[in-house]
Amino acid sequence: MDWVGRVAGLRQWSANGVRAPHKPLLVLYALGRFQREGGGELVYGAVEEDLKELLAEYGPGRKTTPAYPFHHLVSDGVWQVRTDHGSGSPGSGVRELRESGAAGQLVPELAADLRREPDLLGRLARTLLDLHFPPSLHGELCQAVGLDLEYDGTPAPVPGQRQRQRDPAVRERVLIAYEYRCAFCGYDGRIGRVPVGLEAAHVRWWALDGPDDVDNALCLCSLHHKLFDKGVLGVSAAYEVMVSHRFVGHSPAARDQVVTLAGRPLLGPQPGRPRIAEGHRAWHAGQVFQGDPRPAADTVRPAGA
């Protein structure tokens, strides 16, 4: 069985680039439990909170429920559900899943192949990470689902699918466009002539068909790249920095490096270089940015003022 191809083809609701990583997150969670425990059922009532947290952290900003993938993943041939009354899922309703004692697990054929092929679990996990999430989130997502992977960031090949090739020159083009400084904070560190801690950040994720073009990228420092991919930071229609109201940081460092960015105009690109295309900016604002933006930093009044 081509399990890599099967997980690569998980059926997901999608329209106009809307993110729906519910099933991939559930499979990653199940693979993590399998790696640690060797299999066994996952009772919905016992894992519901874990799955809610995963969706809140790595899913879309809109309200959602883990009941959806728990039920619908069965149709993809990698997952099965039974209840206290027998085999089969009771539906995608939270109440029905809880009250019926619904429990899910990887199908026996997949579990057997995972035991027989030591590298299969890693290939499945890498495929899901590559297809649905940016590289900056892979390490922490593995930790969140309890996966221990030796992963160098090299995309896992998917049989029967033509691999998109990243443009190795795009980083340099983006850094030149933004004059080797973070578009959010202005950081421009170097060792000698070599910039350090500066990265080309995709606005619309490469994993979700974002192109390797300057108008789909920002030059960001490592910290702000991570926060941009997490949805803490975004770009408004006025091309100003947005900071999510969900972000909490009380230290001077958190305020100086994040909160005070709210409402700040982007630094760059230099004249003659394209700024972020509106379609890519709007995609990130709608699919990645978390919650509502804070007011501009200069309008925030100190507590008690």
From TrEMBL:
Instruction: Write one Gene Ontology MF term.
Output: endonuclease activity
Instruction: Alphabetically list the UniProt keywords.
Output: Endonuclease, Hydrolase, Nuclease
Q: What positions does the domain HNH nuclease occupy?
A: 182-235
Q: Which Pfam families match?
A: DNA-SBD_ScoMcrA, HNH_2
Q: Where is the ScoMcrA-like DNA sulfur-binding domain?
A: 4-148
User: What name does this protein carry?
Assistant: HNH endonuclease
